[in-house]
Write a structure and sequence with these properties.
about 90 residues, mainly alpha, elongated
Length: about 90
């Protein structure tokens, strides 16, 4: 049970950031993102954020560093942009 809480606490910021970012993206770019499901945006943001958190843990040896959270927010935003806008141009 303790491992579950630890893993949840580690990936929690990525999940929360992705959920809020996907909701705001769907709200702000309603017409442009009409054909893309909110769930798809949120999952892409979660994946990008989780990868950034894991990379920050490997690079610094600790979780919860400010640089890691900045990378997580950037990766989440890039993933949302890729799924929402760049992926449709191909």
């Amino acid at each position: 049970m303790q491992l579950l809480w630890h893993v949840g606490g580690f990936f929690g910021p990525a999940v929360g950031t992705a959920v809020v970012a996907a909701a705001l993206a769907k709200l702000l770019w309603r017409r442009e993102l009409q054909g893309i499901a909110w769930r798809r945006l949120a999952l892409a943001g979660m994946g990008g954020g989780a990868l950034a958190l894991i990379g920050g843990l490997v690079a610094t040896g600790r979780d919860g560093r400010l640089l890691t959270y900045a990378a997580m927010a950037t990766a989440c935003g890039l993933a949302l942009w890729w799924v929402g806008f760049a992926g449709r141009r191909r």
